[in-house]
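Hi there,

I know you've been waiting on this one. I reran it after we fixed the sequence typo, so this is the corrected version. Both the input and the resulting structure follow.
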Amino acid sequence: MEIRVAISILLDYSNEFAQWKIARLLNRTAKCIVDTKKYEKECYGRSTFLRTEWCSICEKSNPKVKWLRYDELGRTRYITHCPTWFCSVSAVHSMIAHCRDNERVLLRVPWQKSTQVVIPRSDGSKSHGHCKINSLVVRLTGYYVETEWQEENSKMCAKLIPLTYYSAFKPKMMSI
């Protein structure tokens, strides 16, 4: 039996995520077949008016939906999806596409272990603050780290710092 037919049967008649993972791990040809399947990539996460028993991907009612949580532009977003391999993979593809459309990249490996950073200020001083370690902002001049800190008057401030200031890390990005 040709591998294309075997993979098609495996994926078309099984909804388990484990079967999708096995199909990808068989060999390069099988991985290519699985990767070129059509996935839903435009189901962006929502932060309000969430339907708790509704799959955003296949648009069916399901009391056992899973929640994919991610941060985008300072807001927590959720994509509810079925536990099936198609909906799970489509939710991840949609999350990556949403971030990419907002000039962000999600990293496969965090660029550092701690979220604590020293933030250079315009006046030459430095502040202690927090940063995102699993995503970077993309600009024409390179990759930037999103940082934030609290001023003495309890005012929250944010700033983009070039990744090169902190590390020579070459980002390994999630892609679709």
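Quick highlight: Helices lie at 3-12, 17-25, 28-35, 85-101, 163-166.

Best,
R. S.
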